[in-house]
Amino acid sequence: MTTKYQICTRCVMDTTDPDIIFDNNGICNHCHMHDLQVKKNVISGIEGQKRLKEIVSKIKEENKNKKYDCVIGVSGGVDSTYVAYKVKEMGLRPLAVHLDNGWNSELAVKNVENICRKLEIDLHTIVLDWTEFSDLQLSFLKASTPDSEIPSDHAIVASLLDTAKEIGVNYIIAGHNVRTETHLPVAWSQGHTDWGYIKNVQKRFGKIELKTFPHLNFFEFFFPPYVKKFVNILNYLDFSKTEAMPILEKELGWKYYGGKHYESIYTRWYQGYWLPAKFGYDKRRSHLSSLVCAGELTREQALSELETNTYTPELQKEDTAYVLKKFNINQNQLDEIFFSPKKTYWDYAPYARLYRTSLYRGLRSIYRKIKK
After folding, report:
1. Which class does domain 44-346 fall in?
2. pTM for this structure?
3. DSSP label at 28?
4. In whole angstroms, what separates CA 283 from the centre of its chain?
């Protein structure tokens, strides 16, 4: 059955999200979720500054006898760069962690190095084993799900946690913020913390055993106490991407790279070409919709942006050639993967499948009765 096309009357999310729901006014569920999350997690103005000051004081006090008092992730992008800038401004002593997965653009590398040098932050770079990681990424393309960025996202979280544990600190200052990152359809990408999903995809399509890949385990998926280690300071800062970028350019010599997460060549290619062409998913809709709800763009501006190409055909051609070279495959092999039947997260026995069992539902029901 073909779904009639519809687009949200508030943002620019549409029925390319197969799970989207609209209310009687044509406003989508993502917009309603945005409002709920902002109300729950964002603390603005003086109260936000007060709460953040309390958090920072606690971090300093608990780690006063250590070399570092927190860990931050740096990618060269807007959010992580602004976090680094504010963390130093607040007098914290961070260790910056950068995951090198073999796809960094030259500009991203320069941004990271420049940021850490100017802010006098020690940098710890974790380099993934390219033989393992490239085989895993190729496995995800062959799996034919829209989740090929999952391995990098998973490794970043695991690497931050591993580093925090190694240096004995309990705080990871993160760049996530709900104002500009809420319109995220599950159908477009899921399984970020699900090691069962990742290892099963690799088992099915890979040629190499993952011996060194940073990952979470089964118990961390179902009982994730580590989430308490992550402090999303941007939720207390009235964060605005449009206001942050000129500050970073002026103060740190930071340079923009052309799109959300486009500091990675693979991400630029995957989000700019593969996802729209194979699955019909344009992640710009998600990013732009969050900015519309955050008041940083008008809906008209977002619609105008969507009228343009995801990126230039010339650069897309160049990136595709680079992807073929990095994966050591030819165009015919890539085409074969491209035209393979589309699959989903649930086709590869993820840990989350246990949520669907009658045993889990029964235990959950008992737990709720006990809790009452």
Report:
1. alpha beta
2. 0.92
3. B
4. 12
Cα–Cα distances (Å) from 242 to 180, 249, 291, 338, in that order, read: 11, 12, 10, 36
- Rounded to whole angstroms, the Cα distance separating 76 from 238 reads 21
Q: Could you tell me the two tokens for 268? A: 């630029």
Q: Nearest 5 degrees, angle CA 290-CA 294-CA 299?
A: 70
Domains of the chain, residue spans? 44-346
In the predicted structure, residue 259 carries a pLDDT above the cut 80: no
pLDDT in tens, 103-134: 988 888 889 999 999 999 999 999 999 999 99
Distance CA 236, CA 43 (A): 5
* CA atoms of 164 and 151, how far apart (whole Å): 20
State yes or no: pLDDT of 337 exceeds 80.
Answer: yes
The pair phi, psi for residue 264, each rounded to 5°, is -105, 130
Could you write out the DSSP letters of every residue in 38-79? HHHH---HHHHHHHHHHHHHHHHHHTTTSS-SEEEE--SSHH
The gap from C-alpha 195 to its chain's centroid, in whole angstroms, comes to 16
Give per-residue pLDDT as tens, 137-170. 999 999 999 999 999 999 999 999 999 999 999 9
Max distance between CA atoms of the chain, in angstroms, equals 63
Give the pLDDT score at 363.
Answer: 61
**CA distances in angstroms from 169 to 26, 71, 80, 163, 216, listed in the order given:** 46, 8, 19, 9, 18
End-to-end CA distance of the chain: 43
